[in-house]
Backbone:
């Protein structure tokens, strides 16, 4: 979808463990920051899209999540749309909100992603991820892992991942092993992703983890499931991020300083690729969404200044380089080794620290990517500023169906 919606303001909390704050309080903090950044009063909002993935499981809040959060801020009367779409919840909310703005139905809208994943009962936190697959499949999430294992030429026997870790770490591990087998990628390559993103995260005051991590430390850390060690897996977290979108007409009226436009946003869902008789990465849902976004924006990957992508695991980042077209298939490790995706490189990736270091409160992740990229395009990112940033891409995926993500959103922003 090609859009002409403008980002008028952004705001977010620090990501991490917020045991002293409610889900509503986190949302309010981010929303107030975004409204202040836009210089707008909450009374000017005409509609709101609220993205949350796991409150029903973790906090017990279902059905009216957005209405509850906004009412606590004194915001009512306006349409409120609740979006739940796995880790892509607030990316989906943004894409849908932009469509309504582009259609001329609203001039000023709010998009907010918010999540609390920490809970004293860890099983409840991990249980949220178990529901991001087809639960009516007799084998549930394990069937996804088994299909990926076959793609890697292996067999898989469960040792009960749901009791100790998110089943998605098993999924990412099998994806990694398939890539290692096909292209000679090593655990050291995945550790280099961690080192890079930890360096970036050390420069981000809103990141969950700000400590630097060496390649050796990443390799020698506690094993989660081979080849993944703890730093190679994104953490759970709490947090919120918000974006105020306006129409082109409203943007002109506001005389936005350093305006940032959403030039494209594509939402795509996975399909059963086995039926297509082709399991190649070129046909993944991520590749599909990226190609459509580039076409809608009228650009190609060489035009990008920076990228925030869904590094739920370190191997996920390397694999995404390839299907997003940042390099050839199988060349992700080489792109990383050349320093191209590091701050100061040709195409810096996850300068926020990514999910690995900034954190991954799943419902907030998509909006947080837009916050980071907007600030980059406006030259507001301080020590982690990408010099001359003009066009940026956000990639956010979620859930698992078959051997692919259940949903992916790719959004392209441009400074005008």
Residues:
């Amino acid at each position: 979808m090609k859009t002409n919606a403008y980002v008028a303001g952004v705001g977010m909390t620090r990501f991490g463990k917020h045991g002293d704050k409610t889900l509503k309080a986190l949302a309010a903090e981010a929303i107030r920051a975004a409204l202040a950044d836009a210089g707008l009063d909450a009374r000017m909002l005409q509609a709101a899209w609220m993205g949350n993935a796991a409150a029903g499981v973790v906090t017990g809040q279902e059905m009216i999540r957005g209405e509850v959060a906004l009412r606590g801020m004194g915001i009512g009367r306006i349409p409120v749309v609740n979006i739940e779409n796995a880790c892509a919840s607030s990316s989906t909310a943004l894409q849908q909100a932009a469509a309504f703005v582009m259609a001329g139905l609203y001039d000023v809208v709010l998009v907010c992603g918010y999540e609390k994943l920490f809970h004293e009962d860890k099983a409840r936190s991990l249980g949220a991820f178990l529901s991001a697959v087809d639960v009516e499949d007799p084998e549930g999430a394990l069937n996804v892992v088994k299909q990926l294992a076959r793609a890697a030429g292996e067999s898989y026997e469960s040792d009960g991942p749901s009791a100790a870790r998110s089943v998605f770490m098993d999924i990412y591990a099998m994806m990694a092993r398939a890539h290692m087998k096909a292209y000679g990628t090593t655990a050291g390559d995945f550790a280099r992703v961690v080192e890079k993103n930890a360096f970036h995260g050390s420069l981000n005051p809103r990141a969950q983890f700000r400590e630097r991590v060496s390649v050796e430390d990443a390799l020698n850390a506690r094993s989660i499931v081979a080849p993944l060690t703890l730093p190679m897996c994104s953490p759970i977290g709490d947090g919120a991020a918000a974006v105020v979108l306006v129409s082109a007409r409203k943007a002109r009226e506001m005389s936005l300083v350093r305006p940032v436009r959403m030039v494209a946003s594509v939402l795509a869902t996975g399909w059963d690729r086995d039926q297509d008789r082709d399991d190649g990465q070129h046909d993944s849902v991520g590749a599909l969404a990226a190609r459509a976004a580039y076409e809608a924006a009228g650009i190609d990957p060489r035009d990008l200044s920076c990228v925030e992508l869904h590094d739920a695991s370190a191997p996920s980042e390397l694999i995404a380089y390839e299907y997003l077209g940042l390099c050839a298939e199988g060349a992700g490790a080489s792109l990383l080794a050349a320093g191209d995706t590091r701050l100061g490189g040709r195409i810096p990736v996850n300068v926020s620290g990514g999910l690995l270091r900034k954190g991954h409160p799943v419902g907030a992740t998509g909006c947080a990517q837009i916050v980071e990229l907007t600030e980059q395009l406006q030259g507001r990112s301080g020590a982690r500023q990408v010099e001359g940033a003009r066009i940026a891409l956000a990639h956010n995926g979620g859930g698992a169906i078959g051997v692919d993500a259940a949903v992916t959103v790719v959004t392209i922003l441009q400074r005008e």
About this structure: The mean pLDDT is 92.
